[in-house]
Amino acid sequence: MLLPTLRSLVTCACRTAGNGLQLRNSVQRAPWRQFVVKRGHSSVVAETGVPSGAAMGSVPNAATNRIVGRWLVACSGMVVGAVVLGGVTRLTESGLSMVDWHLIKEMKPPRTQAEWEAEFQKYQQFPEFKILNHDMTLPEFKFIWYMEYSHRMWGRLVGLAYILPAAYFWRRGYLNRTMKGCVLGLCGFVCFQGLLGWYMVKSGLEENPNSFDVPRVSQYRLAAHLGSALLLYCASLWAGLSLMLKPHKLPDTHQITLLRRFARGTGSLVFLTALSGAFVAGLDAGLVYNSFPKMGERWIPDDILAFSPAVKNFFENPTTVQFDHRILGIGTVAAITGLYLFSRRIALPRRTRLALTSLLTMAYMQVGLGICTLLMYVPTPLAATHQSGSLALLTLAIWLLTELRRVAK
């Protein structure tokens, strides 16, 4: 009777001791398991470059937003290249050298002598050769043809730079609902920009029996083509910087509100001045009055309203177009100077202050470039630099607006 009872007590004690030992071992092993899992997770994060919170969270996140932001800024840089190359193509009068448009076929340039002669013969059927370049040689034609070819091929690269990464980021889930709409709009706008470019070129290939003027593209279509490129650039840069740069928590004061409004108005004026340059280029208005500050012997020339109706002068009269561009340029510099002086009374973050100072400096440099271009009778290198300066000024204006944007509540 006593022996069975003792045996059951010993068995129970052994089981209790075993369970205690097993529990103690599991407790001792738990920190090691946590350390190994944490160490492995940190290694994965280090390899991917994604913060630990983002790695465990959903996509999109802060890390993917920075990636998408850099892509959009890079795309905006490619748009700058297209605008600058288009300006050089216009200044060298190369834009009408390719007389047809094929998305794929024209990607392969002529290689043999026979192919070049056939391309040259096609060009000879159009007004620019008949009126302006009737004594052009084949080597001279090759130069202007390659200028236009480079511009078109760069445009195709811009399209691929938008569309292919957009498809990749969409598939990987890097884009939220708002960014999906933004990216779709940008990609669609790139395609529209290419079609608008060909529509512009066509206007310079049409024969007008009643005109013996130098063949050129329509200044309206040129302005539309440049304006759409500037809109594409501004939208891409704004979206990219908004994703990359963390917004400042500026105090919601009356002065900050006024500064934001002032900056928006100034940015709009910068855009309008750059767009007016398309009418100057389209009408060769920079060659009309090559003096400053007066236009010839007068502050306001006599032929400023020579066309009827009067509104026609603002878009078709070279004198009026140059006068408008001068006034817009001077007004832009005055507005940027006023914006800078007003901002001196407000405590702003260092990065915002740097954007304002850079904008002011570039504005005066751009005015100096414009005056030199005018006085030197529009040399191609200086004119191209002046056109590039307008994009630099627009870039700094967008940067400032990004710095001053209101933090979402």
What's the helix and strand layout?
Blueprint: H1 2-48, H2 52-56, H3 62-91, H4 113-123, H5 127-132, H6 138-172, H7 177-205, H8 219-244, H9 254-282, H10 313-316, H11 318-343, H12 350-375, H13 380-403
What's the quick description here?
This protein has 409 residues and is mainly α.
Account of the 3D structure:
There is one protein chain. The chain is mainly alpha-helical and about 400 residues long. The protein contains 13 helices and no strands. It has helices spanning about 1-50, 50-55, 60-90, 115-125, 125-130, 140-170, 175-205, 220-245, 255-280, 315, 320-345, 350-375, 380-405. The longest helix is centred in the N-terminal third of the chain and has 47 residues, at about 1-50. The N and C termini lie far apart (about 80 Å). The model is unreliable at about 1-55 (pLDDT under 50).
Q: Which tags fit this structure?
A:
mainly alpha; disordered N terminus; 409 residues; 73% helix
Number of helices: 13
Largest β sheet strand count, sense and barrel closure = none
- Percent helix, as a range, is over 70%
Cα radius of gyration in angstroms = 32 Å
The whole-number mean of residue pLDDT values reads 86
Q: Based on helices, strands and strand pairing, what is the structural class?
A: mainly alpha
Described by the principal axes of the CA atoms, the overall outline is flat
Low-confidence stretches: 1-56
Q: Strand portion, in percent?
A: under 5%
Distance between the termini: 80 Å
SSE string, helices as H and strands as E: HHHHHHHHHHHHH
